[in-house]
Design goal:
The chain has helices at about 15-25, 55-65, 110-120, 165-170, 230-235, 240-250, 300-315, 320-350, 360-370, 375-385, and strands spanning about 1-5, 5-10, 30-35, 50-55, 75-80, 80-85, 90-95, 105, 125-130, 135-140, 145, 150-155, 155-160, 175-190, 200-205, 210-215, 220-225, 255-260, 265-275, 275-280, 280-285, 290. The protein is of the alpha/beta class and about 375 residues long. The strands form four sheets. Strands 6, 7, 14, 15, 16, 17, 18, 19 and 22 form a nine-stranded mixed beta sheet that branches.
Length: about 375
């Protein structure tokens, strides 16, 4: 039986980054990932799912040596954000005020590739690709895991980073609260001739927000949230009608827009696990929470989970039951409040902007413009991004 400090189920974005952070803290780690190790080449076709990484998490990834493994043309930085309400005159403009970036956009696949590749540099990390956990049991001081190939592993902590449908969460009997937004997001790539440079754009409509995320130059990733009874008409429309409909939902002159990829869609929902710490099992990322993508907070919440967990257990004697219990309780308490605040704010905004009453439309616009003119609040909002 092989022994480690930590076993991670799931080697995707959150799991692989977490393994790097734990290894950098001099802990031994086993990563169990159902899929093969990701391989990316510069000339690979772009994948449709992208992630927005907040500034503080860019620093985390850079400190871990992960971002340096992502090709420059696969990561688009942004130094400003423009948000507007198409049903009022409300708008918000965020700017770094310097040459620093507010964040960056990259493909999910490239971030996973870079994080998994970086793990190869740590002798204290063992990876089990194309394997899964069959079962686990825990005592007061350790967790024992059985893999699908019969291997047995033992560790002081087990982390579930295996996605929204987390098998480990199911094995532990942890229940979740689910809520559908009755929406789907349409994603694709666009070339936009007159978009502002290094700027993320988002328009609010009653039917859902439309986000344009800069991938570098004039290339943007579109994330268009549509009500379930509307999305198919745009997903299946010919290019001319699709672009015409998109412009109608943007209501902003950005010059010529050209479709550069196929289109895909995925359902939008909110989910919380009712517990994120059970004994020596900890849920991180989508295993613990799923939020609306309107502000690009999903993976940022997961990365904040990672940063907080490492902060709590670094230097802790993982054999000491009382000390570990206190550390994990602090982690759960701090992450619960941050995740709840962010997730409920995203849900409130999604539902608030869907209301078509004239009085509320005026109030939305007035509120956005008041926030836009109050620099301390805007600065706080930027600092909160990805909490």
């Amino acid at each position: 039986m092989q022994k480690f400090d930590v076993i991670i189920s799931g080697g995707g974005m959150v799991g692989a980054v977490c393994a790097n952070a734990l290894a950098a803290a001099d802990l031994s780690v086993a990563v169990v990932e159902a899929g093969p190790q990701i391989n990316c080449q510069s000339d690979n076709e772009r994948t449709l799912r992208v992630v927005a990484i907040a500034e503080k998490h860019l620093k985390l990834l850079a400190d871990l040596g992960i971002t340096s493994l992502i090709d420059d043309d696969r990561m688009g930085s942004y130094q400003a954000m423009q948000v507007w309400d198409n049903n009022s005159r409300g708008q918000l403009n965020f700017n770094s005020g310097s040459a620093r970036d507010l964040g960056a956009i990259t493909e999910n696949k490239w971030l996973v590739y870079a994080a998994q590749k970086k793990l190869q540099e740590y002798p204290q990390v063992t990876t089990y690709y194309q394997h899964t956990l069959d079962s686990f049991e825990q005592s007061q001081r350790q967790v024992s895991v059985n893999l699908d190939n019969g291997d047995k592993l033992q560790a002081r902590l087990l982390l579930a980073c295996d996605g929204a449908g987390s098998p480990v969460r199911e094995m532990a009997g942890i229940t979740v609260r689910n809520s559908s937004y009755q929406q789907r997001a349409i994603v694709c790539y666009l070339r936009i001739s007159q978009a502002p440079e290094k700027t993320a754009l988002q328009a609010f409509n009653h039917s859902g927000p439309v986000a344009l995320l800069p991938m570098g130059g004039d290339l943007f990733s579109l994330v268009w949230s549509c009500d379930e009874d509307q999305y198919r008409q745009w997903l299946e429309a010919d290019e001319s009608r699709f672009i015409h409909g998109l412009k109608a939902h943007l209501r902003c002159d950005l010059g010529a827009i050209e479709l550069m990829s196929e289109r895909a869609s995925f359902p939008l929902r909110q989910m919380y696990a009712n517990e994120t710490v059970v004994g020596r099992l900890v849920l991180l990322g989508d295993s613990a929470h799923v939020v609306h993508p309107l502000a690009g907070q999903g993976v940022n919440l997961g990365l904040s989970d990672v940063a907080e967990l490492v902060r709590q257990i670094e230097g802790v004697n993982l054999r000491d039951e009382e000390t570990v219990t206190r550390a994990l309780k602090r982690h759960q308490r701090r992450r619960h409040s941050e995740v709840l605040m962010t997730s409920e704010l995203m849900s409130f905004l999604q539902r608030f902007y869907a209301i078509e009453q004239p009085g509320l439309t005026w109030l939305r616009g007035k509120g956005m413009n008041l926030v836009n003119g109050f620099k301390p609040l805007k600065h706080w909002l930027i600092n909160q991004a990805g909490s």
